Amino acid sequence: TINVTFTVPSTARLGAQRGVRFRFTNNSSTTPVSSGASGETEDYTVAVNCPAISISPASLPAAVTGTSYSSTLSATPSATYSWQVVQGTLPAGLSLNAGSGLISGTPTAGGTFQINITATNALGSNTGRLTLTVGTAPVVNFAVAPANLVGYRNKAGQTYQFTVTGATGGAVWG
User: Are 95 and 104 in contact (CB under 8 A)?
Assistant: First the structure.
């Protein structure tokens, strides 16, 4: 049994093949080359298997039009990655930082967006299909009674009662 250890070059890419050559001789010399020895040379090919790159999250947090948005992509194994949208487009108003994986901005249109984003490091790349849903901000229509508020102005300290209709989902007053 012969155990052989070697280092895969740092320039190797996932799926690349590297050759290893062994020379077996009848010479007991420890020098790499000896004269007068007979033997056999064997060539072997080694496939480089790197850990698969995994992108997360699989689905991005929802966004709302007109509201600031921020979500950072990550990948494993831990490394420095560059990020790129390779298919589809981010919603108008959002952009991807190629160095950090940060998707940020203020979306200006609603909808569901399917985006393919690639993470690349020194050993390879992988593409993840992400979904981003951008909802629209709710519009609240309401009426105030009494409709004519002229008599209610400039009376500090006075308590007034109004009736609001048409607001749903819990109106918040501030």
Answer: yes
Q: Is 164 helix (H, G, I), strand (E, B) or coil?
A: strand
Tokens at 115, concatenated = 């985006």
Q: With CA atoms as reference, report the closest residue to 91 among 110, 72, 77, 76.
A: 110
Tell me, what's the pLDDT at 42?
67
For residue 23, give the H/E element and its range. Answer: strand 17-25
Q: What is the pLDDT of residues 112-164, one digit of tens each?
A: 999 999 999 887 889 999 999 999 877 666 665 556 555 656 566 666 666 66
Number of other CB atoms surrounding residue 116 within 10 Å: 13
pLDDT, average across residues 2-27: 64
pTM flag (> 0.85): no
Helix and strand numbers (H, E) in the chain are: 0, 13
Strands (E) in 48-152, as ranges, are: 54-56, 63-64, 69-72, 74-76, 82-87, 94-96, 102-105, 111-121, 124-135, 143-145
Q: Is the peptide bond before 146 cis (omega within 30 degrees of 0)?
A: yes
